[in-house]
Amino acid sequence: MKKIAIIGCGISGLYFANLLQKNLEYDYTIFEKRPNLDYEDGYGIQLSVNSIKLLNKIGFNKINSYEVFNPKEISFFDAKTVKKICKIDITKFNHDKNYYTTLKRSNLIKFLLKNIPEEKIKFNIEVRDIEYLAKIKINLSNNQSEEFDYLVVADGVFSKTKSIILPEEKNIEFNNSVALRGNIKNYEKEDISLYLGKDFHFVIYPVNQNKEFNFISIIKKNLKNAEVFDVSLFNDDNFLKSLTNEIYNKTSVQLEGKIENIKSFPIFVSRSLKISSKKNTYFVGDALYAYPPSFAQGASQSIEASTEVFEEIKNNGNGYYNKRIKKIKLVNLRSRLNHFIFHLSNPIIVFFRNIILKILVKNKKFLELYLGKIYRN
Ligand SMILES: Cc1cc2nc3c(=O)[nH]c(=O)nc-3n(C[C@H](O)[C@H](O)[C@H](O)COP(=O)(O)OP(=O)(O)OC[C@H]3O[C@@H](n4cnc5c(N)ncnc54)[C@H](O)[C@@H]3O)c2cc1C
User: Fold this and answer.
1) Is any atom of ligand 1 closer than 6 Å to the C-beta of 309?
2) Residue 105 maps to which CATH number?
């Protein structure tokens, strides 16, 4: 029986564990730094058909339909005037019974945990050190050691485990933007609404059939290094107020008093793509590569990467990184381009951007190249 250590109990680690769980050939343990998982998080997540197809293979299609929403369109608006610029019909990319889906993150985590026996997850534990002997020996923060055949590193954008394996690399950077997240009840527009403004954008979408919506804004912010890592700043009421006021003043969408549970956090992205040359060691999800969130692909790519690592281990292959790097480059280019285009500020450039957007969303070839290439894995 092959023994596999999974570091991190997020979307990528849990999806990978689900694949192993269905297979008697593997024994695995998930090591999670936190004391428990957050089930109360009501914020949303968008999952495009590439990950839905993979999730459906482990039974996601049986999730209570009340807890998910299948958007049909992404509508683009000018945030200031609320004039509609254009829309994309995303049902074009749905196939078989795989539909673009939005839901609460907590419900996705609950679904991924459903088939994982409790004893498989060891909470409050981090990796301290790794020794590559005949097997992979992992020294843990509880002063115990365990040996494994494979190591799957899924501990997110700040991956401490990756920095143990590649100590010389400082691989993440502040994206000069902060996220502002909240919930809205009874928003007037169904489907996904994307509002483009000067140095910011925000997206509102339903997270279930109960008229609950997710609000997420990405706002350009130049912060000093000390501020970026200051958790108290992001929890500070005045800082939150300054961010929300900035949005309220720059849009005619009536948001004031409507957004609940507002939180903010800095956005970090990968500086470069670093892979492991150590035997049987795989980085997945944000630990492998974290994109700017403007293409809503991080979780979907995490699920794809976990599937590919599972196939690699099952088939004794060695092409995981080659294949993944190609996909990362495609997604990264689109994520960074979206971020740039969404935040344009010069009125003349914005005028031409909007005309170009109107033309492009009607061009089947372009949509297939820009979205289809990513959504059809
Ligand atoms: C504002 C924002 C909006 C986004 N929206 C979307 C979206 O709509 N759609 C989409 O597809 N993606 C979205 N993403 C990206 C997506 O959230 C991430 O790509 C995805 O969660 C990555 O999953 P992961 O499992 O790799 O990492 P994580 O979800 O970060 O999980 C990592 C896990 O490892 C644990 N951990 C951390 N350090 C250690 C350690 N040293 N030892 C053990 N455990 C550890 C953590 O506690 C956590 O449980 C968004 C990202 C942001 C910032």
Assistant:
1) no
2) 3.50.50.60
CA distances from 202 to 30, 168, 301, 320 (A): 35, 36, 22, 35
Check pocket membership of 56 for ligand 1, CB cut-off 6 A: no
Q: Name residue 231's amino acid.
A: V
Q: Is the CB of 11 under 6 A from ligand 1?
A: yes
| Residue owning tokens 């804004």 | 217
State which of 155, 165, 194, 295 you would mutate to test the pocket of ligand 1, scoring each by most atoms of that ligand within 8 A of its C-beta: 155
Residue 180 in domain: no
Q: Please tell me the total count of domains within the chain.
A: 1
DSSP 188-201: S--SEEEEEETTEE
From 6, 19, 29, 33, give the residue whose CB has the most ligand 1 atoms within 8 Å, as the site to mutate. 33
Ligand 1 mean position, distance from CA 16 (Å): 14
Strands of the chain, DSSP E: 2-7, 26-31, 44-47, 68-69, 73-78, 84-89, 101-104, 121-122, 127-132, 136-140, 145-148, 150-153, 172-185, 192-197, 200-206, 212-220, 259-270, 281-283
Cα distances from 335 to residues 210, 293, 297, in angstroms, run 30, 7, 8
Query: In this structure, is residue 176 part of a structural domain?
Result: no
Please check whether residue 250 lies inside any domain of the structure.
no
Residue 210 lies inside a defined structural domain of this protein: no
CB of 297 shorter than 6 A to ligand 1? yes
Give me the pLDDT at residue 277, please: 87
Question: Which atom of ligand 1 is closest in space to residue 297's alpha carbon?
Answer: 11
- Structural domain of 64: 2-171+270-375
Counting from 1 in the atom list of ligand 1, the atom nearest the Cα of 160 is 41
Residue-level pLDDT at 40 = 66
Closest CA to ligand 1's atom 50: 293
Residue of 18, 31, 37, 45 to test ligand 1 pocket, by largest number of atoms within 8 Å of CB: 45
Residues of the chain by 3-state class (helix, strand, coil), percent to 5: 40, 30, 35
Taking the chain (377 residues) in runs of 10, the rounded mean pLDDT of each run is 97 98 94 88 92 98 96 97 97 95 96 97 98 97 97 97 88 95 92 97 97 97 94 95 96 95 96 91 97 96 98 95 96 97 96 98 96 91
